[in-house]
Amino acid sequence: MNIDPIERTNFTLSAGAVAVSFVFSSPLFALSLALGAALEAVNFRGLRNQTQFLFWGQIQSGGQWTGVFGLRFVILIVGIGAALYFGADPAGLLIGLSLIMPAAVIEAWRTRPAIDPSAPALDADDPSWDRWNPWLAREQEEETEE
Fold first, then answer.
1. CB count, 10 Å around CB of 138?
2. For residues 21 and 29, is the Cβ–Cβ distance under 8 A?
């Protein structure tokens, strides 16, 4: 079985969070965190595989892709509901379900492209920086006076 680096980072963060929560909080919180992390890991693996199949052209967007996408979320909702029904700590479950976000940020940072020191760049005092709109990622249109 091939484990993607983001899944490995997610597993590491989840294991560390569960270990720390066993030390500093109740066992129910730690088990809820572990259950949330397991549900999130299964959901993310399914999402990643489904997206790879879509990008590789092995599955077409539309009915089948949307159906599997929806089914995965129904299974996730049933898992969360069952965990809460049987007494899982909601905060621990939420933290466990959310650990994929820091894992994604860490992996995006680790795999960022190298900075090219010879790439063309404007000087810091270049007047064209004043025309640049960072919200739209383009130069602002010239305002015409009437």
1. 10
2. yes
pLDDT band at residue 56 under the 50/70/90 scheme: confident
Domain ranges in the chain are 5-113
DSSP letters for 111-143 = TPPPP-TTS----TT-THHHHEETTTTEEPPPP
Does residue 78 register a pLDDT over 60?
A: yes
pLDDT-derived band of residue 121, with 50, 70 and 90 as boundaries?
confident
**CA–CA distance from 119 to each of 123, 125, 126 (Å)?**
12, 18, 16
Q: How much is the pLDDT for 79?
A: 93
Cα distance between residue 65 and residue 129, in whole Å: 44
Pick the closest to residue 82 from 29, 26, 35, 31 (CA basis).
35
